[in-house]
Specification:
The complex is a heterodimer of chains A (289) and B (237). Chain A has 289 residues and is mostly helical. In chain A, 74% of the residues lie in helices and 2% in strands. Chain A has a two-stranded antiparallel ribbon with strand order 1-2. The longest helix of chain A is centred in the N-terminal third of the chain and has 32 residues, at 3-34. Classes of the chains: A mainly alpha (289), B alpha/beta (237).
C-alpha cells in the first residue's frame, strides 16, 4: 500500500471517528449524569438524516436542512425525556425495555415514511470538491466533518471546564442528590442534556448522510459502535468518547482495508484489552459510592 | 421557624422516624443528639427532602415543605452541610463554592448577612489560597469548611449540619465550634446533628435527644451537662 492510500484511509477513519464521537459524546454524558443507557440513541441519528433528506428534497439546501433536522431531533429528545424517561429513572430493566422498544418503533416509522431502500444525502455543493492534503487528494467534505468534530471537542471542553453549566454537570455526575439539596433543579439539567445529546446524534446523522448513506439498520450499527466507544473511553466523559471514537473509527476503517472479515472482532478485542487494563475505561473514574 | 409535627419516615420497611415532633425557633441553634441509629441523619434527610416522610408535616416559616422535591426546599432557604461533607470531587474548590451559589433572597430578615464568595474566603482564607485545587485535595477540616462555605453561598435562612465534627482532630473540632458561633451571630438558625456531646453543648441554645425515632429529652446544654442519668441512658457518655 502506498503512503497516499494509507493517508486516505487514515483520514477516512478520522472522519468516521468524528461522526461516532458526536453520538458517543451525548450517549456517554447521558449515561454518566442520569444513569440511563439510551438504546434509542441511534434513533436520533436515523431521524436526523431522514428529516434532513426530506428538507433537501423540498429544496431547502443542505445547511438549512441540517439546522432544521437538529432542532427537530432535539425537540424529539426533549419530549422523549419529559414524557417517557422521567418515569423510569433508577429502574434499569425498564429503561432497557423502553429505549430498546422505542428504537424499534422509530425504525419502523422511518421505514413507513421513507421506505426501506437505501438513500443518499448529496454532498453540499459548496464542499463537493477534492483537496490536496499533501500526501493525497481527499474530499473537502470529509475534512469539514473532521473539523466540525474537533470544533465540537473544543466547544465541549470549554463548556465543561469554563462555564457554570459545565460545573453543574460534573457535580451532577459526582453526586446528584447533594446538588439537588443545594437547590439545583437537576431535572431541568437532565432534560437539557438529553436534548443536547439528541441534537449531537442528529448532527452526526446529517453530516454522516453523504458519507455513510442512510438505511434503516444503520441506527443499531452505529449504536453498537458508540456503546463500545463509551465503554473504551469511560462513562460520563466526552474526552473518553473523543479518544475512543478516534480509536474505533480508525480501527474500523483500516480493519476493513486489511482484514475485512475481522473488523468487528478487532473492535471488541480493543474493548476487552482496555477493560482488562483499565476497567473504568481510558478516562473513566472509579466506581461511585 | 422550622417545625416537625408527627413525622414518620421509612427506609423500605424500616420505620425510622416514629412520630417525631420538634421546633427550631428563628435565630436559635438547636443540637440533636442520640446514639447511632436513633434517626438523626434521617431527620436531616427528611427536612432536606432527600427522603420524603410518609406521614406528618414539616413546615418552614409557616409553609409546608414535606413532600416538595429537595431543590425546592433548598430554595426556601434551607442549606445542607451533609454527613461526610460530600464535596464534589470533579470540581475545584472555587467551583464547589460557586456551583450552587444563589443571590440573597428578597425576604431575608433585616440584619441577616448576605454571603458572597469574597466573604466566604474571608471566613476561610485557606479556601482562597487553594481555590484552583480540587475539592478532595483538602484535609478533613478544610473540606468541612468548604461544605459550610458552599451552604452559606446559597444564602440560606437555615443551616442543617450533619455531624460536622465527624472524623476530625480535637483541635479542628474546636475550630468548627468557633465557626458555628460566628454563624449564629449572623442571624442564621441552625439544626446541628452531633455525636460529639461536648461540641453540641458548647454551641447549642437547646439540646434535643433522640431515641428510636422520637425525642426523649429536651433542655438546655447546662441541664444536660448536669444530668448524668440522661447522658448515660441515651448518649452512652
Amino acid at each position: 500500500m502506498t503512503t497516499s492510500t494509507l493517508a486516505m484511509h487514515i483520514l477516512n477513519g478520522l472522519a468516521y471517528g468524528m461522526l461516532l464521537f458526536m453520538i458517543a459524546a451525548g450517549l456517554s454524558i447521558i449515561f454518566g449524569l442520569m444513569n440511563i443507557v439510551n438504546l434509542a440513541h441511534g434513533t436520533f441519528y436515523l431521524v436526523g438524516v431522514y428529516v434532513a433528506y426530506t428538507f433537501v428534497q423540498q429544496g431547502t439546501g443542505f445547511w438549512p436542512a441540517l439546522l432544521l433536522a437538529i432542532v427537530i431531533v432535539a425537540a424529539l429528545g426533549m419530549v422523549m425525556e419529559k414524557v417517557l424517561m422521567e418515569r423510569v429513572y433508577g429502574k434499569e430493566l425498564e429503561q432497557v425495555l423502553l429505549t430498546f422498544g422505542l428504537s424499534f418503533i422509530f425504525a419502523d416509522v422511518v421505514k413507513w415514511i421513507w421506505g426501506s431502500s437505501p438513500l443518499t444525502l448529496p454532498v453540499p455543493s459548496a464542499l463537493d470538491f477534492s483537496l490536496n492534503v499533501g500526501l493525497t487528494e481527499f474530499p473537502a467534505y470529509r475534512i469539514f466533518v473532521i473539523g466540525i468534530g474537533c470544533l465540537l471537542a473544543a466547544g465541549l471542553w470549554y463548556m465543561e471546564n469554563k462555564t457554570r453549566i459545565g460545573a453543574i454537570i460534573r457535580a451532577g455526575v459526582d453526586d446528584r442528590e447533594m446538588l439537588a439539596a443545594l437547590g439545583i433543579n437537576i431535572k431541568i439539567v437532565f432534560t437539557a442534556i438529553f436534548a443536547v445529546g439528541a441534537a449531537l446524534a442528529g448532527l452526526s446523522g446529517v453530516l454522516g448522510g453523504p458519507i455513510m448513506g442512510m438505511y434503516v439498520g444503520i441506527d443499531s450499527e452505529i449504536l453498537v459502535s458508540s456503546l463500545v466507544i463509551v465503554v473504551v473511553g469511560g462513562l460520563g466523559t466526552w474526552k473518553g468518547a473523543f479518544i475512543g471514537a478516534i480509536l474505533i473509527g480508525l480501527t474500523d476503517t483500516l480493519g476493513r482495508v486489511w482484514f475485512p472479515s475481522l473488523t468487528m472482532a478487532m473492535i471488541f478485542v480493543i474493548m476487552i484489552m482496555v477493560l482488562l487494563i483499565r476497567p473504568n475505561g481510558l478516562f473513566g473514574r472509579g466506581a461511585q459510592a | 421557624m422550622l417545625k416537625l409535627e408527627q413525622v414518620h419516615t421509612y427506609y423500605g420497611n424500616s420505620h425510622i422516624l416514629q412520630g417525631l415532633s420538634f421546633e427550631v425557633p428563628t435565630g436559635k441553634c438547636m443540637a440533636l443528639l442520640g446514639r447511632n441509629g436513633a434517626g438523626k441523619t434521617t431527620t436531616i434527610h427528611s427536612i432536606a427532602g432527600l427522603t420524603t416522610p410518609r406521614h406528618g408535616r414539616i413546615s418552614f416559616c409557616g409553609a409546608t415543605i414535606s413532600g416538595l422535591p429537595s431543590y425546592k426546599i433548598a430554595r426556601q432557604g434551607i442549606a445542607l452541610v451533609p454527613q461526610g461533607r460530600r464535596i464534589f470531587p470533579s470540581l475545584t474548590i472555587r467551583e464547589n463554592l460557586t456551583v450552587s451559589a444563589r443571590e440573597a433572597r428578597q425576604d431575608r430578615k433585616a440584619g441577616q448577612k448576605v454571603w458572597t464568595l469574597e466573604e466566604v474566603y474571608e471566613l476561610f482564607p485557606i479556601l482562597k489560597e487553594r481555590e484552583q485545587n480540587m475539592g478532595t485535595q483538602l484535609s478533613g477540616g478544610q473540606q468541612q469548611m468548604l461544605a459550610i462555605g458552599r451552604a452559606l453561598l446559597t444564602n440560606p435562612h437555615f443551616l442543617l449540619m450533619d455531624e460536622p465534627s465527624e472524623g476530625l482532630a480535637p483541635v479542628v473540632i474546636e475550630q468548627i465550634g468557633e465557626i458555628i458561633q460566628t454563624l449564629k451571630k449572623t442571624g442564621l438558625s441552625i439544626l446541628l446533628v452531633e455525636q460529639n456531646f461536648y461540641l453540641a453543648c458548647a454551641v447549642a441554645d437547646e439540646v434535643l435527644i433522640m431515641n428510636k425515632g422520637q425525642i426523649v429529652w429536651n433542655g438546655s446544654p447546662q441541664a444536660l451537662l448536669a444530668n448524668k442519668e440522661v447522658q448515660h441512658q441515651y448518649l452512652g457518655v
